[in-house]
Design goal:
It is built from 10 helices and no strands. By secondary structure, it is an all-alpha fold. The longest helix is centred in the middle third of the chain and has 33 residues.
Length: 251
């Protein structure tokens, strides 16, 4: 732990984490909501129809960011699970506890929006291809992380079981990523890739990137806010929480 930067050691303590993240939770949520409004209105109302898919293409601006950020959150959960198992860091488990419902919601939204997009584009809302099936697996993984915490009566055992499942389940992320290349699927290949030119015209790319950033920032803000509430609940009988409550009452 001596090699860990000072600010990370400070954030690893519940009291400092609760106080130091209040500003960022509010700012990230506000900026994320603002960016999401701008990107969504821009993409859904002001860009021209796509040449082949027409107006149904507009669902891309919320579908793609939701799907990708749901995967990013799961990878973060897997890392937190590893940290929790190795260093027994309580806040790592708190992060999993707060992030799992957000990732689950984004995954469900990605599945539903994908179905709505698929009906006019491919003539069907669902096919059991690799991409949609692996995304459904991701939803069940998230759901499992949430349910397991309710099943175990021992919080430490629950944290350990959840961490193991999160780490093992991370194998599903590259399957989702490369499913359109490894398997036959109706889903179109990735339009954005590092080191390759974009397959999306600039007029579509700008609002799409705005929503990518906005949903990422908003998700981070919600996760921070949720973590703060769990930290407060878990430490409700400690001195610093009583002092915080008394301070709030005096206000």
């Amino acid at each position: 732990m001596r090699f860990v930067p000072t600010f990370l050691r400070r954030l690893s303590t519940p009291q400092h984490f609760f106080h130091d993240t209040q500003f960022w939770a509010v700012v990230l949520c506000a900026l994320g909501l603002l960016g999401l409004c701008v990107g969504s209105v821009w993409g859904l109302c002001f860009v021209p129809p796509e040449r082949y898919q027409g107006d149904s293409f507009r669902i891309l601006f919320v579908h793609a960011p939701s799907a990708h950020i749901a995967q990013m959150i799961y990878l973060a959960i897997a890392v937190a699970g590893f940290v929790q198992l190795v260093w027994k860091l309580k806040l790592a488990d708190t992060f999993i506890r707060a992030a799992a419902p957000i990732g689950c919601t984004l995954t469900l939204f990605a599945l539903i929006s994908g179905m709505l997009w698929g009906m006019p584009t491919w003539g069907t809302a669902w096919v059991w291809d690799a991409r949609t099936t692996s995304m459904l697996v991701l939803f069940f993984l998230y759901f499992g992380l949430i349910v397991i915490r309710q099943v175990f009566t021992n919080p430490e055992r629950a944290a350990k079981a959840i961490s193991v499942i999160a780490i093992v389940g991370a194998i599903n992320i590259p399957i989702i990523k490369f499913s359109v290349e490894w398997f036959k699927t109706l889903h179109q290949p990735a339009s954005l890739a590092i080191g390759k030119p974009s397959a999306i015209a600039t007029v579509f790319l700008i609002p799409l990137l705005i929503n990518f950033v906005a949903i990422s920032v908003f998700s981070a803000g919600v996760i921070l806010a949720s973590m703060r509430s769990y930290v407060l609940i878990d430490a409700v009988r400690t001195t610093w929480v009583r002092e915080q409550l008394n301070k709030n009452k005096r206000r």
